[in-house]
Amino acid sequence: MNRVMLTGVRPSGNLTLGNYLGAIKNFVDRQESYKSYIFIADLHAVTSYKEPNFLKESVYNCIAMYLACGVDENKTIIFKQSDVLEHGTFGFIMTFQTKMGELSRMTQFKAKSQGCGKEGVDTGLFVYPTLMVADILLYNTDIVPVGKDQQQHVELTRDLAERFNKRYGNTLNMPDVYVDVIGNKILNLQNPAEKMNKSDDGNNKGTIFLMDDLNVARKKIMSSVTDNYNKVHFDEDLQPGISNLMSILAKITGETFESIEKRYEGKGYGDFKKEVADVVCSLLENIQERFKKYNNKELLDKILFNGANDARIDASETLNRVRKSMGLN
Q1: Cβ-count burial of 11 within 10 angstroms (0-12 exposed, 13-18 middle, 19+ buried)?
Q2: Burial classification of residue 128, based on how many CB atoms lie within 10 Å of its CB (0-12 exposed, 13-18 middle, 19 or more buried)
Q3: Does residue 118 have an active-site annotation?
């Protein structure tokens, strides 16, 4: 039987180059070697209020973008989280395996709850990691390709699966995290101390979106922050900006850092930035052309319908096994 690979994505709007290089590309490169699942995490999206029509459109855009990035609907089961009811049921069960201290230490909860106080934090933000645990465990997942910032959630999944198995017998499969050495965390082009992400204040000069106009994307790269060393060299501590650009180039082309350094020995940053911009714009152009092909709601509804039917088979089998172990069947 093929090993299982799974990833999920929140339909939160325009995906970034960081999303693609940190997680999507890792999945696409391996989808033929595994029984592969991708789900649109629309339940995770409503941990805070989303306008319903905006959420619906975001789901369609997200699926079309993943297909444009190379996910093959004939090799990967693609579905919407809320269409497989086992996710919600199992997520509720997994909250009973979890300590409040474990959830309060989750990095994203700490970051997003700062300044809110306990009364100002939605419960969904606090408990959503247990739903993420259920998402992974429902499909007997073997590997979860994620960016470095998501590694903590897979580690929690392993901890809770082990705890459940000790309490109720060997019931759940133990997943492994897959974080690529190169490009596991693409950083903001203007502030390489932060990851590349959509800015809450609307200032996205350091973020490249997959649907960016090519001229805009090129300008962002050419104006990216570097340093005074004037040497193309990979050193995340001393040269974070240049190292980030090297990671982007290496991840897209497959070239090693050593090879890039050798090619640019004695050269300035201008030529290097131009090559990075050329490679990124070529990638974006290809993705945007494919997006036009898949931006078809009738086609996407058919893919989601078939995917949900396939996903329910494995999800219901796991949930029934869990219920039996707990004496709930």
Answers
A1: buried
A2: buried
A3: no
pLDDT in tens, 222-256: 999 999 999 999 999 999 999 999 999 999 999 99
* Residue 50 among the catalytic residues: no
* Token pair for 21: 């290089």
Q: Which residue has the tokens 């739903």?
A: 131
User: What's at 222, amino acid-wise?
Assistant: M
pLDDT tens for each residue of 168-222: 999 999 999 877 777 678 999 999 989 898 765 567 899 999 999 999 999 999 9
Closest C-alpha among 310, 329, 325, 322 to residue 138: 322
To 10 degrees, the CA torsion angle through 132, 138, 142, 146? -20
- Given 50, 56, 112, 231, the catalytic residue: 112
Task: Give the other-Cβ count within 10 Å of 15's Cβ.
Answer: 23
pTM: 0.87
Phi/psi at 191 (5° precision): -140, 85
Q: Closest Cα partner for 63 from 88, 45, 39, 46?
A: 39
Say if CB 177 and CB 161 are below 8 A apart.
Answer: no
Judge contact between 175 and 5, C-beta under 8 A. Answer: no
Q: What is the third-level CATH fold of 4-182+296-326?
A: Rossmann fold (3.40.50)
Which of 25, 195, 220, 273 is catalytic? The answer is 195
Collapsed DSSP state (helix, strand, coil) of residue 268: coil
Q: CA 22, CA 149: separation in Å to the nearest integer? A: 9
How far apart are alpha carbons 228 and 36 in whole angstroms? Answer: 45
Is-catalytic flag, 205? no
Domain ranges in the chain are 4-182+296-326
What does the alpha-carbon distance between residue 183 and residue 171 come to, in Å, rounded to a whole number? 34
| Residue 5 Cα to chain centre, angstroms | 13
